[in-house]
Write a structure and sequence with these properties.
Strand content: 15-25%
Number of domains: 6
Radius of gyration: 32 Å
Number of strands: 29
Helix content: 40-55%
Largest sheet: 9 strands, mixed
Structural class: alpha/beta
């Protein structure tokens, strides 16, 4: 293949196919590519030449763009040739009439790799030395000069058998042949002498095997290629090799560019990634590399073999323990897209380290900022609402990563301990300030919305106007930082805003949900009977959900209806047209945290998806307003130890959820004791007490709420104006799911899938598509969910893909499930399937 054909097929046309773009602008100030661009014109592909007339070319480009934007466009692509340098600055782009076309699609050259010299080196990878020499003598050699490089060196039998021309293409085909190529290689042996000559001239490899079969030759070629890359990446290269590996054949310096090029192509090509992993693992075992290389401290930059990835993980852990942030970031960035991330277990470890780093750095930053924001109760609350709540998000995401990882060998224990200790240290400092202000200023603070006034101030006024319909979501345990993440995912539903509210104490569900009823701010009371706390609205007891709902039903009659959120989403409710106030209840998050706090962070996304789906459905039913409120927040006490418990102060107390006491007593060093009136508690109790620290009155408590802290008592209220969801795509995007080159069985409970999005049309090329990946059994039950982290949003368990983007997603399979299942890529709003795969478990253990 000549250099002109290489640029046409492997660069320009390949860019159309790989990125799913429809518009490509080629900037060429040297007028080198004009003829080859014009040759790419077809009835389906328009080429506009801007070198003759600027006005006519602009008109032609605009007309072609309009054709591409039609529902069934007659064109498949538009290439615009501009004989000028590509604009770099915003000012240059404003002056360039063709920059908007680049924004719609892509631009060539896009990087240093698109320079003419780089293209020539890629096209003639086996003759890099000669190419470099030519460019040193002439900055812009002609196509003919480049094509003459290597002329006369041919491998006609191999070229005919494999259907490729270049030496690089032949080597790649011998390493990873298609089915047709493999059949051709096995059908005869005439190609073997040519292959030996090719290996010797391009790689410096003298075959040791006397076999003439493709399998044996491929085995040796793979071993030589991968070991050569491994050696070239070692600092000191061959001199760093242990004695046992000194005699293993590997390439010399002159062949290293070709070796690296082939290895990178094998790792990056989705068709060959699984084969690369299989081969690398086998070669590692064959050469016993982990044992022989045990003493090597620096294995270089690349992870040719899996044991290198393991070694770099340990280096990342060491850097984390040593607070070497720069080194740690360098290691993490380098492994972000590594091929070994295709193994779910490996990905889980790296995600855990990455989450720990983010949490540690955030704790350090906020510790430095805290003294500037702790002078008053108001400044501390504003600091929490504005930015400090971010550390709670990072801690939750870290605990998600920790909960999804089984640390069988204790390798990650230091990482988890260090991150948890840093978070606990920061929280203790914040809590100390919070309690100090609580003792001097009381609760709830002036100037903030009380949760007891949410209904009267935000919901009731809407219902005073006939015909307006509002939905009130009562979401148990919606911590403030979670609401910020939720609102981000509701951007397509309408205009929304969050305001902080102060939960009533004790911050438990019984009190918090009652506080969201009409008149609660004035009439909610706490009473006691037989040593237990009870709650009432005036004289009306509110001991159950039914009693709370009856309050609303009596107020609004046929204008009111309520339903569990999940039932509403799944169509288990007929909504009368008279309903103007619809209450949707969800307690799943609170239940998950109460019953299994370690796994609960990964389940938050389920509730978020239900809220999002419900809001879309509500708009279609005529609702234009929604309020999302909660009863209390929470604190994840994952760093608790055996002695991490508070003793009650002297007195006669009723213990509420191990975080707050109601009754009478005296203060001590470990507890605050304040009058009930000062803390906004009305009723039968004269005093309220609680631990000064973020601990409970019983050891081993992970999920803390009920007490007084920013995490427990500052809660969100989201007010939404619902809008019609515009169809962003004239033609729906395509989302595909792939697993290990078409494999039908999974051998691990953390299988990794590749999810790819393709543009539906020209106008959807700049839009993202949200995808939710799930595994369903034959009955439709969810038996596997996307593991949070990386491309998967930890709060919603969805990923957002641009057209042409591919993400690797790990599914966390249910430990109790085995058998056939279907992996589905779903639209998280409508739950329709973009694509699906039928698979079956085949676990090794």
């Amino acid at each position: 293949m000549g250099i002109q054909e290489f640029i046409q097929n492997e660069v320009l046309l390949s860019r159309f196919k790989q990125a799913q773009i429809q518009v490509l602008v080629v900037y060429d100030p040297d007028r080198l590519y004009r003829d080859l661009c014009l040759e790419l014109a077809t009835p389906k592909r328009r080429v506009v030449d801007a070198s003759e007339s600027s006005i006519e070319s602009r008109e032609a480009a605009l007309a072609a763009l309009q054709e591409l934007g039609q529902p069934n466009p007659p064109l498949e692509g538009l290439l615009i040739y501009v004989p000028a340098p590509a604009p770099q600055t915003d000012e240059e782009k404003q002056r360039d009439p063709f920059s908007l076309y680049g924004a719609c699609g892509a631009v060539f050259p896009a990087s240093d790799g698109d320079e003419y010299r780089s293209l020539c080196l890629r096209a003639k990878a086996e003759f890099r030395t000669e190419i470099r020499r030519i460019f040193s003598e002439h900055p812009m050699p002609s196509f003919a000069v480049i094509d003459a490089v290597g002329y006369g060196t041919g491998w006609p039998t191999l070229q005919a058998l494999l259907g490729v021309e270049s030496a690089r293409g032949i080597l790649f085909a011998l390493l990873a042949p298609s089915d047709t190529q493999q059949t051709a290689l096995k059908g005869q042996e005439a190609w073997v002498p040519e292959a030996k000559a090719l290996f010797q001239s391009t790689l410096g490899l003298d075959l040791l095997t006397r076999s003439k079969t493709w399998e044996k030759i491929a085995d040796e070629l793979w071993r030589f290629l991968l070991f050569s890359e491994f050696v070239s990446d070692l600092p000191g290269q061959a001199q760093a090799l242990p004695p046992a590996l000194k005699d293993v054949p590997h390439a010399g310096l002159e062949a290293q560019p070709l070796v690296s090029d082939l290895c990178e192509r094998l790792r990056n090509d989705q068709r060959t990634q699984a084969l690369y992993i299989e081969r690398a693992e086998a070669i590692e075992r064959e050469l016993n590399l982990p044992e022989h290389c045990r003493a090597i401290q620096d294995l270089g930059e690349r992870d040719t073999f899996p044991f290198e990835e393991r070694a770099h993980l340990l280096q990342a852990v060491d850097a984390l323990k040593g607070d070497d942030v720069d080194r740690l970031r360098h290691i993490l960035d380098r492994h972000k897209g590594a091929i070994w991330m295709g193994k779910g277990e490996n990905q889980a470890q790296w995600l855990l380290v990455s989450a720990a780093v983010s949490l540690l750095q955030s704790c350090d930053d906020f510790e430095r900022q805290l003294p500037d924001h702790g002078s008053s109760q108001q400044s501390l609350i504003d600091f929490y609402v504005g930015s400090l709540r971010e550390v709670d998000r990072l801690q939750r995401e870290f605990e998600q990563a920790a909960g999804d990882y089984i640390d069988a060998d204790g390798q990650m224990a230091p990482v988890m301990a260090q991150a948890r200790t840093a978070y606990r240290r920061l929280v203790d400092s914040v809590q100390s300030l919070f309690i100090r202000h609580l003792e001097t200023s009381g609760w709830p603070p002036l100037g903030y919305l009380s949760n007891g006034d949410v209904f009267d101030r935000l919901v009731a006024p809407i219902l005073q106007q006939s015909g307006r319909r509002v939905a009130l979501f009562l979401i148990d345990a919606l911590r403030y930082e979670l609401s910020v993440e939720l609102l981000k995912k509701l951007a397509d539903v309408g205009q929304g805003a969050i305001q902080p509210a102060c939960a009533l104490l004790p911050s438990v569900t019984l009190v918090g949900m009652a506080s969201l009823l009409p008149g609660a701010g004035q009439h909610l009371r706490l009473t006691q009977k037989s040593g237990k706390m009870l709650i009432a609205l005036g004289d009306r007891p509110l001991a159950s959900v039914t009693q709370r709902i009856d309050v609303l039903r009596q107020h609004y009659g046929q204008r009111f209806a309520e339903n569990p959120l999940a039932d509403f989403v799944h169509g288990k409710m007929d909504l009368p047209g008279t309903v103007e106030l619809l209450v949707l209840r969800s307690s799943e998050m609170d239940s998950d945290f109460e019953s299994n706090p370690e796994a609960a962070p990964s389940l938050v996304g389920r509730t978020f998806q239900q809220i999002r789906s419900a809001l879309h459905k509500l708009y279609s039913l005529g609702f234009r307003e929604a309020v999302i409120a909660t009863d209390h927040g929470f604190y994840l006490n994952t760093s608790s130890g055996a002695g991490d418990v508070c003793a009650k102060p002297p007195g006669n107390w009723i213990n509420v959820h191990e975080r707050l006491l109601l009754g009478d007593g005296v203060t001590d060093t470990d507890n605050y004791v304040l009058s009930a009136e000062r803390l906004g508690v009305r009723g039968d109790f004269s005093q309220v007490a609680g631990p000064r620290a973020m601990v409970a009155y019983r050891a081993g408590q992970w999920y803390l709420h009920g007490g007084a802290s920013l995490q427990e008592a500052i809660v969100p209220v989201i007010v939404l104006k619902l809008e019609k969801v515009e169809d962003r795509f004239a033609k729906q995007p395509t989302v595909t799911v792939q697993y290990k080159r078409g494999a039908t069985r999974v051998t691990t409970r953390l299988p990794v899938f590749e999810v790819t999005a393709s543009a539906g049309d020209l106008f959807s090329m700049a839009a993202t598509v949200d995808v939710m990946l799930e595994a369903h059994d034959a009955q439709g039950n969810v038996v596997g969910e996307a593991k949070p982290g990386g491309d998967v949003n930890p709060a919603t368990l969805t990923l957002s893909l641009m057209p042409g983007q591919t993400a690797k997603v790990t599914l966390k399979m249910d430990l109790e499930f085995e058998g056939p299942f279907t992996v589905k890529a779903l639209d998280p709003t409508t739950l329709t399937a973009f694509d699906q795969l039928d698979l079956e478990t085949d676990y090794v253990v």
